[in-house]
């Protein structure tokens, strides 16, 4: 039992490090969380998490390596992903206009799922109802993740390394004290414990990140439109960069 603990801890830490950095998927999760509540944010996160699980299965089967062999396919994925991000950025920008009102998100705002967030029946300055529309966060995050070449390349490189059976003495490479720490923290790559820890760390982020955003949204009236605007900027920025990369690869 003690032998699996380092692998679980290392997997969880790696999963958190993988899920936490700002990017297109977290932008979608943030937008859904502050506009529609914790459950909507969690669903969006599960879309991205499901894509990771799909890539995990494909990596096990060796299918993902096909992408590495065909640069043209990588370029097409960059182009499709870029166009999708720009399209979703446009949708996020529309959400800014729909929610930019003091009464649309406030201390007493309750999402349609019973959690904090902007309510689908929120009103604008004139008292007219604001329709935020049906949540599409799960589908958006799932499609973005599936067409994200960086995510695919992760499973081609680091992911394959994690699945390859072996032993990694993490602390043995620490300068000056590595010899004394040899054997203290040994991770079993390719072990079920490492994989469980990896997806456990991702799941922890997917649950806590929307909750933190919802709590912040309850305290700041303008938080929802601000996050929606930031989401639009992040998605648009990544979309343009993906299109430029597609042009570079395919040109």
UniProtKB/TrEMBL annotation:
GO terms for cellular component: plasma membrane. It is a multi-pass membrane protein. It comes from the Archaea. It holds the Pfam family LysE. GO terms for biological process: amino acid transport. Keywords: Cell membrane, Membrane, Transmembrane, Transmembrane helix. InterPro entries: LeuE-type. Its main location: membrane. The chain crosses the membrane at residues 43-64, 76-93, 141-163, 170-187, 193-214, 226-244. It is found in: Cell membrane. This is Leucine export protein LeuE. It comes from Halolamina pelagica.
